[in-house]
Every structure is written in structure tokens, then in C-alpha cells.
């Protein structure tokens, strides 16, 4: 487990910024209470086998006692680097994104299952959308009870959604909580 280099950090922060905007500052400077004697530390990003983890500094210090080959996971896996060098967010970062999301979409109860099966969000399933959502911005998808279901990319802006036909795509699916069941063997 090692810290991210400058290029990796830039790629990860650009992807997170797409979803949380200026709230990225709150993620980076988030205090941790896991330190010795309850002292507040900070959270940091670490790379292990092409996966990026969001973990408290105190936990990283304790993990140095474990050999790298034996260390499987540490903290919250927020994403992974592909072989092509691109960064993909994973569903495990949903809680982090939902707490700091800049743009949100709420689904009607009839559209929840469709989204959880991996389908895009259509206008007929749209309950609400954050005002001034721009096209191609990262959005976090919620049900009407404010439970985060997943995240994706806005296919249309808020103004364009008003003029869209019922079968038009509002947001493209990237990840949802149903992945835990669909990809049980891989995870």
C-alpha cells in the first residue's frame, strides 16, 4: 500500500470533483477519530493493486505491520485504475459521494427496480432533479426516501429534461447497489 503519486492523485480528484464539486475539500480534510487516544487525524488515499482506498491515517500506520502480499483491503475502496490508466469509481464509494453530492436525482418507486437492474434513468422514472444540473455532470441517484441507490452521468440538463419525451434518457447508469448481487462471484 502506497500513497498516490501526483498524476494518480490528479486523475482521482478530477473524477471525484465531477460528482462532489467544491465539496471535495470536505472529503480531503475530513477528520478521523480512529487515532490513538481518540486524537483526530485525517483521511488519505492509498493505492494497493490498482485499487484506490480512502482510509484514516491511523489505520494506515497500524497496517504497516502486515506484509503487502497479505494485505487484501484497507478502508473504503473508492475505485480502481484500468489497464489503460483511467480511473473508475466503484459502488463502495456511494456513501462518500451521497454525503457530498453536488447534483442529485430522485427516482419514482416504479423506476427503482429498473435502475437497480442496471438500466439508465428515463424521464418516466424521474421523481425530482437538482436545479441547474448540467449535461454530462456526475449525479447521485436516490429513491424518494433519500436512500442512495447508485450514481451515473446526467444525459440531459435540468431544462432539457422538462421537454423530454417519457422514454428519453435522463441519466446514464454507472453503478448501483444491485451490483453486490449481480457480481457476487467477482466481488
Describe this structure in words.
With 187 residues, the protein is of the alpha+beta class. The protein has two domains: 90 residues, Nuclear Transport Factor 2, Chain: A (Roll), CATH 3.10.450.220; 80 residues, PUA domain (Archaeosine Trna-guanine Transglycosylase, Chain: A, domain 4), CATH 2.30.130.10. The strands form two sheets. Strands 1, 2, 3, 4, 5 and 6 form a six-stranded antiparallel sheet that branches. The protein has a six-stranded mixed sheet with strand order 8-12-11-10-7-9. The protein is elongated and about 55 Å long. It starts with a strand and ends in a 5-residue tail after the last helix.
Question: What is the number of independent domains?
Answer: 2
Strand content: 25-35%
Overall shape: it is: elongated
What is the distance, rounded to the nearest whole angstrom, between the alpha carbons of the first and last residues?
20 Å
Topology pattern, helix = H, strand = E: EHHEEEHEEHEHEEEEHEH
Largest sheet: 6 strands, antiparallel
CATH architecture of the largest domain: Roll
**What is the CATH C level class of the largest domain, in words?**
Alpha Beta
What share of the residues lie within helices? 25-40%
Query: What is the SS-derived class?
Result: alpha+beta
Amino acid at each position: 500500500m502506497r500513497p498516490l503519486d501526483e498524476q494518480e492523485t490528479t486523475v482521482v480528484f478530477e473524477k471525484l470533483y465531477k460528482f462532489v464539486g467544491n465539496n471535495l475539500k470536505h472529503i480531503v480534510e475530513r477528520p478521523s477519530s480512529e487515532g490513538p487516544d481518540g486524537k483526530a487525524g485525517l483521511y488519505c488515499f492509498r493505492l494497493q493493486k490498482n485499487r484506490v482506498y480512502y482510509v484514516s491515517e491511523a489505520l494506515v500506520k497500524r497496517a504497516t505491520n502486515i506484509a503487502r502480499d497479505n494485505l487484501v483491503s484497507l478502508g473504503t475502496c473508492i475505485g480502481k485504475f484500468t489497464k489503460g490508466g483511467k480511473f473508475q469509481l466503484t459502488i463502495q464509494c456511494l456513501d462518500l459521494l451521497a454525503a457530498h453530492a453536488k447534483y442529485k436525482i430522485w427516482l419514482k418507486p416504479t423506476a427503482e427496480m429498473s435502475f437497480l437492474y442496471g438500466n439508465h434513468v428515463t424521464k418516466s422514472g424521474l421523481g425530482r432533479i437538482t436545479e441547474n444540473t448540467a449535461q454530462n455532470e456526475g449525479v447521485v441517484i436516490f429513491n424518494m426516501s433519500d436512500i442512495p441507490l447508485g450514481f451515473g452521468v446526467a444525459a440531459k440538463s435540468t431544462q432539457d429534461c422538462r421537454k423530454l419525451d417519457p422514454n428519453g434518457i435522463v441519466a446514464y447508469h454507472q453503478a448501483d447497489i444491485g451490483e453486490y448481487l449481480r457480481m457476487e462471484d467477482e466481488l
